[in-house]
Design brief:
8-stranded mixed beta sheet; mainly beta; two-stranded antiparallel ribbon; 4 helices; 335 residues; disordered C terminus
Length: 335
Amino acid sequence: MTAKKGCDGCSGAYIENVSIALKDTKAPTISSIKITSAANSDSETTYFKAGQTLYAKVKFSEYVRLADNKNSSKQSTNIKLGLSLAKKNTKNATQIQAKLVSLKGDTAIFSYDIPATIKVNNKTEAMDYFVSGLADIDKQSSLIVKSSANKNSKFDRAFLDNNGNTLSNSSSTISKLKSGINDSTKFENEIKKTTSAITDIAGNPLDINSFRDDSAYKNGVSISRVYLDEVSPNIKSVKLSSNQKINNLNDNENYYLKVGTKLTASVEYNENIKKVSGTNLAKIQAKFNIYSSCLLYTSDAADDLLCVDLGGRRIIKKKNKVKYTGTLNMKKKKK
């Protein structure tokens, strides 16, 4: 700026009371989602059982805030993150909703208390599912909606001053904004309302592409598989083996273990079980019910004294079964 031409007596010109505003139109995205067993932990947890609390830690690409800037509003206290649950050979069996418990900086934390049972298709069953990812965006209605949603499905949005306080409708900034749009309907539907309950500091809604959208064949941000399991494992099979030398000349002898023979039991479960090692392994014992019975066979197995008469003659009448309880110590298999 210069002084007016020909104004020899004019002093130097200057500018004052200038405000500079930076325009921000970029939507915040979800950078990652971690499932942990503690709100203050970044270590991911894979297995949960009933009574435990699951925490979903959502990290965004920038600092975020509540859209309406009100901690106690119905809109803000109702924010939940939908997680999809699945079983083997199923893509999406049902969903759970984790509630927002913390929003600070660029991270939102959601929590979900694991129940013993869950209702699926109007049927109550034991909790035995895994988290397969985010629920479809249509199941995230307390957090985000599509831009095509009507005004009543969208979220109230506030704009902030330099100190983080909500600008009132009568403030000069909002008045100028409304005047610049010059369309009251558009101002109420698109400016005062937004498509997510969490926005960036400028008020931009979350990027819809961060979320799973089955209708658009989009998976959204991935989540490592997490198991919610309240069902005890079942024994699928038990196999017994020994270090006793096989007698190829007398097959009957192979069904009886001699004194000093080592018996090994291999137990297969219907699901993965926790690995046990060290001193804890030595504490695990398998108990067997052992019966003594007389089988009808020739005197070749004359070491079974309960089943043969003097001279090795075969006893026709079976003896009654006698029950014994034995304990087998489980030992780590040597490599």
